[in-house]
Fold this protein.
Amino acid sequence: MTVDITDRQRQILRAVEEHVAETGDYPGMAQLARRAGLASASSVHYQLGCLEQLGVISRERRTFGAPIRVL
């Protein structure tokens, strides 16, 4: 089964993967916003929630710096 995601969601996924590949750490919301070219960290938070509901990622909630796993 394939899941249709938006271009913005694709940008965020790419930003997560690039950040982890470059630093070995998981990015914060502000870092993701900058890497994806978005103005707001809250936009990233919303899009990550959508991706999680779609089953594209998994993440631990309420933990700063928690891993975001692309499935």
